[in-house]
Design goal:
Shape: elongated
CATH architecture of the largest domain: Alpha-Beta Complex
Strand content: 15-25%
Number of helices: 13
CATH superfamily of the largest domain: DNA methylase specificity domains
Structural class: alpha+beta
Helix content: 25-40%
Oligomer: single chain
CATH class of the largest domain: Alpha Beta
Length: 388
């Protein structure tokens, strides 16, 4: 345990806050739900972009509140998700209840709630290390109570919080600027798409692009870098490197820059992307369907945008029978018969340039997001050593 500045001391959380566990009314009792009492789950906190939470996806009624051991937390409490996953944090600006995935903290007079929020945010890794369980990790109430944090005098707490929030807000402004640029390009892309498909002919995918499978003959000691595709149109990503021995008898295929790639298991969930320059030479399993547009007929960027749009994804889902998840596999024969608009090729090339600009901005946003996490982490380490 590191040495603290003069006037600071380590205190257990039970010494600075009352620890409250959440609970859930019976889900099958209709009268317990759709009321006006806020009821948070870890998912509500995971979607936040700020420290505060002011609304929740679900709400309970007074009858629901009285039916279980949940507690109405006063405004200004610090909500800590203690399982599935551990470490989501928020400060409620309205009275709120939580489910059993929380160990929330009602601050005492010796701590500023925003200081408590930030010091716990800096301690997420340590908190996660306290998790125990078979089905999922969970921090016990006792472990939360005994967890120690560095606590300076109240005036110093307020100064630290003001400095931390001043510095993090500058990084947040950069992130928001990048998000605004993304949104602007999204609007421009969609407007361009509608303009260039107006009145054009629609043809089966097999007429405008060719299915290409570049089989890899693996060698036990050779290394192969896998490519993955995120759902919801979030693009490609690098997966761990595997040896031929690890791959075993599985069939893998090379992916080239500019390929239009479908993950046939989750295409219905928009796992469709154009392979980037850094994806060239990576590999995908037999579940990765790669199409190469015919020169002078179509571009990958245009086709990808179409398939991620309302009409395109509707056709993909119709070609992916089943209920959900791995039961919804995209059929190859059905895919090649899907009709797609075929605008003027030069128009498509201009659209592709715009789409690549959008991709670069998206990558910039992702970089800012990672930089923000690293910066915030380093900042908090300094703050709670008394070095800020």
């Amino acid at each position: 345990m590191s040495r603290l500045p003069s006037g600071w001391k380590y205190l257990k959380l039970i010494e600075v806050a009352e620890i409250v566990s959440g609970a859930t009314p019976k889900t099958e009792v209709e009268k317990y739900w759709n009321g006006n009492i806020l009821w948070a789950t870890p998912k509500d906190l995971g979607q936040l972009r700020s420290a505060e939470i002011s609304d929740t996806e679900r709400k309970i009624t007074q009858a629901g509140y009285e039916s279980c051991s949940t507690r109405l937390l006063p405004s200004g409490s610090v909500l800590l998700s203690s399982r599935a996953p551990i470490g989501h944090l928020a400060i409620n600006i309205k009275p709120i209840c939580t489910n059993q995935g929380f160990k929330s903290l009602i601050p005492k007079n010796n701590i500023f709630n925003r200081y408590l929020y930030w010091v716990l945010k800096a301690s997420v890794v340590q908190l996660q290390g306290l998790g125990r369980g078979c089905t999922f990790d969970e921090i016990s109430k006792g472990s939360v109570e005994k967890f120690e944090i560095p606590v300076p005098p109240l005036s110093e707490q307020c100064r630290i919080v003001a400095r931390v929030e001043e510095l993090t807000s500058r990084v947040e402004e950069s992130r928001n600027t990048a998000i605004e640029r993304e949104a602007h390009l999204d609007v421009l892309l969609q407007a361009t798409y509608w303009r260039i498909i107006d009145g054009v002919e629609w043809e089966p995918l097999e007429k405008v692009a060719s299915l290409v499978r570049r089989a890899v003959k693996t060698k036990p000691c050779e290394k192969y870098e896998e490519m993955g595709i995120r759902s919801f149109g979030k693009g490609t990503f690098k997966k761990p490197i595997l040896t031929g021995k690890q791959i075993g008898n599985k069939h893998i295929y090379y992916i080239h820059k500019g390929d239009l790639v479908f993950n046939n298991v989750f295409a219905w969930e928009k796992a469709i992307a154009v392979a980037k320059e850094e994806d060239h030479g990576r590999v995908g399993s037999h579940r990765f369907i790669t199409y190469v547009p015919r020169e002078g007929k179509a571009t990958s960027e245009f086709l990808c945008h179409h398939f991620l749009g309302e009409r395109g994804i509707e056709d993909i889902r119709a070609a992916s029978p089943g209920s959900a998840g791995r039961n919804r596999t995209l059929g190859l024969k059905k895919l090649e018969k899907i009709l797609v608009p075929v605008p003027d090729y030069d128009e498509q090339k201009r659209f592709a340039e715009l789409a690549r600009r959008r991709q670069l901005v998206q990558q910039e946003s992702a970089g800012i997001e990672e930089d923000m996490k690293s910066f915030t982490s380093a900042l908090l380490v300094k703050a709670f050593r008394g070095e800020l």
